[in-house]
Amino acid sequence: MPAQQKKIIFCIAGVLSFACALGTAAAIGTQLWVKGTILCKTGALLVNATGQELEKFIGKIQYGLFYGERVRQCGLGGRPFQFSFFPDLLKIIPASIHVSVILFCTVLIVFALVGAGFFMFNAFGSPYETLHGPVGLYLWSFIACSCGCLIMILFSSEVKIHHLSEKIANFREGSFTFKTHSEHFANSFWIILVCSLVHFLNALLIRFAGFEFPFSKSKDSGTITGAADLMY
């Protein structure tokens, strides 16, 4: 492939990596990871609410990695409550998983920026070997993509398997019991998915630029070297 086209491809990949870093940083600071509704089970059972009456006992909840908001509704109107994961909810949530999600988000941002820098360096500079050349570009893209996948897996398990929404809804509730009525992942979660796909796309762009995958020819080169050694 001509050098000019390679520069264009590397520039596109660098811009995409930088955009992913900014998007992930913005996603971390929002409370738009999960949105849902919570049912005041105790209040609904007390009055045997059904149909439209049940709507008076359905509140709302949304949260991110650091803070969120829930609207408690038990037949007397909505009562909003702001909460923070640190330190308020630290004792009731799976803290190790939650902290791991935040750490992997940080790693994703770092390696997305590193990848963007090396893409630009390869576009406008003279690429070095190993970590500065094609192998390094594959490495940064692979690490960033892997971190994005781990973030989604860990956070999904925290929400679905450990019932994070119900734990938050029942935080500091004595006589009332809340149950998750509906929940879905919001914009910030899907930003992480898009970023993972972008880093996978970057790896394809590197291949499209004419670079082989790392170590793809290691067996052939080893065979040739061994034959040369036997000749001498």
TrEMBL record:
Q: Does the keyword 4Fe-4S apply?
A: no
Instruction: Name the Pfam families for this protein.
Output: Clarin-2 (PF25807)
What PANTHER family does its record include?
Answer: CLARIN, CLARIN-1
Which organism is this entry from?
Answer: Alca torda
List keywords of the entry alphabetically: Membrane, Transmembrane, Transmembrane helix
Q: Gene encoding this chain?
A: Clrn1
- GO CC: one term? membrane
The cross-references to PROSITE patterns, in alphabetical order and at most eight, read:
PROKAR_LIPOPROTEIN
Q: Name one GO biological process term.
A: sensory perception of sound
Where's it mainly located? membrane
Compartment(s): Membrane
Put simply, this protein is called CLRN1 protein
